[in-house]
Amino acid sequence: MTSPAYQQLLDHFPRAGRLEWIGLRPARRQPIEVVDEVRVATGSGLEGDRAGARPGGTRQVTLIQAEHLPVIAGLLGIDEVKPEWLRRNLLVSDINLLALKDRQFTVGDVLLEGTGLCAPCAHMEEALGKGGFNAMRGHGGLTARVLSTGIIYTGDAIRLATDKTA
Fold it and tell me: What's the pTM?
């Protein structure tokens, strides 16, 4: 059981996060479709994303930390890594995604629940070059399930569901 003092630490974020980019994966190995807004449906994920074809799963939405892209690029020895190369749905900044694992949080007005770490797959070798898989390890982001229906927009705030002040 978590002590009240420790729970208070877990519940405090210095500021709200921000949704920087939205990408939809229409089919396996197909190009990412970059959009400024997307409808999100309870139990199925982002409209137009292939994860919606498998309703009820724990990987309905994938998120990655914007601050990790320069780290991945540095590990690869390249100038930049574009979010579409990583095939995640949402690029977020200003909030630690790991802190949202097993927690409910909002993106705009849509409620999500962090379900696990989004580990890299072997496709990262093809997308990023030799060593891409290992460069992504520890930087793959978070998977989430959708708990409420709505529309999310680039620029939306990301907050712990219990945080009404950030």
Answer: 0.92
